[in-house]
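Note to self: keep these together.
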Amino acid sequence: MTPAIEWLDGVRPQDITAIDAMLDRVSAADGVSSLSEHTYLHLLAGGSGEDRHGVVREDGRIVGYAFVSAGEEPVAEFLVDPAARGRGLGSRMLAEILEAGGSRVRIWAHGQLPAAESIATHAGMRPVRRLCRYTRSLTDIPQVRMPEGVSVRRFEPDDAPAWLALNAEAFVDLPDQGSWAAADLSERLAQSWFDPEGFLLAFDEHGLVGFHWTKVHGGAAHAHERTGEVYVLAVARRARGTGLGSALTMQGLHYLRGLGLRTVMLYVDLRNAGAVAMYERLGFACADCDVQFALPARQAEQTD
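Structure:
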């Protein structure tokens, strides 16, 4: 019989270590991480807050991990150890996640892997959102002039309140980004990858008007070469249509190229047509997508 998910009050350090090692095995097998940054950071923090963390054990060894966020429309992610696949564990975990999170829970399937999407569709779920990874070479980057009256400098700790306000404004339709609080920002500023020189803030006469936060992945401790990322980029409503988004993007790409990087990536929600058009105009091309699944609205209502 397939073992059930053991929902945890808190994730013990030894379990975090085991899940982290399993995540490495999953990433090596699938070519993509099964957890978003948000989930991974909450896992490393030991499962603090109202989010739910669960594990599946076989013979005392963790072979599955599940995460379900708090809220009326929870978001979930889960992974199965490659050595434990092919026995229905993924389908069983999804059924338990739907039971724990309710019919409005949404599931991320990272990297458009056929097996993950098959598990979701067989449970009656349908795609509702696509978060796609775009890539670009860091050669041949044009210079794009900043709009008149706009200056750019690095992030300073005192900028946090203004940054959080603009982040909330810019991503009001994307709550997984726009709902960041001070603790979420501080958690990322404390990560080993954080580089204040690559966190660019743009100001006009009214204050903060845009930002481009860059990130570097990979290196000696990873299986792939160092790659840059347009981590978060946003422009205030008052400056949209001025070319500030393109200028900030290119300034960040010049910074990343100055670090010796050869490629850059970013994630963009396909519903954000304006951002997709800008990035494609700047030479980015879609590489793959993460797909979010949900039960059809009528089915969700009937099962509540």
